[in-house]
Amino acid sequence: MMSKVTIYHNQACGTSRNTLAMIRASGIEPEIVEYLKTPPSREKLTELIVQMGIAPRDLLREKGTPYSDLGLDDLTLSDSDLVDAMMQHPILINRPIVITAKGVKLCRPSELVLDILENPNFGEFIKEDGEKIIYKP
Description:
Elements: E1 6-9, H1 14-25, E2 31-34, H2 42-52, H3 56-59, H4 79-88, E3 97-100, E4 103-106, E5 124-126, E6 132-134
Parallel strand pairs: 1-2
Antiparallel strand pairs: 1-3, 3-4, 5-6
């Protein structure tokens, strides 16, 4: 039996769609969390950041978000301030975040998901932009 996989997903994002397609190509139908509609709790977001081994700033998305308007480029802002901003504006959370039994990862680029899938060796995969991905352990 395959283990559970969860993806924090935005259908409007090509990277997120490619990541979801790779998960499905590996034989798994993941739990899909449309995080713009159902954002993680502050506790869950903090837990994901810790599990990914990154700083909150590393999870901030700039493009297409209120990042600049909110002054989030201010390096004196605390981690707590940055998490507060992501809680108030979930679009600031970069995506996709994938959770598997092998780990938690921000999958940018999408092929990073292969590192944490149970069955990443599913052959050739062609991303939406035409790029070919072949798993090489």
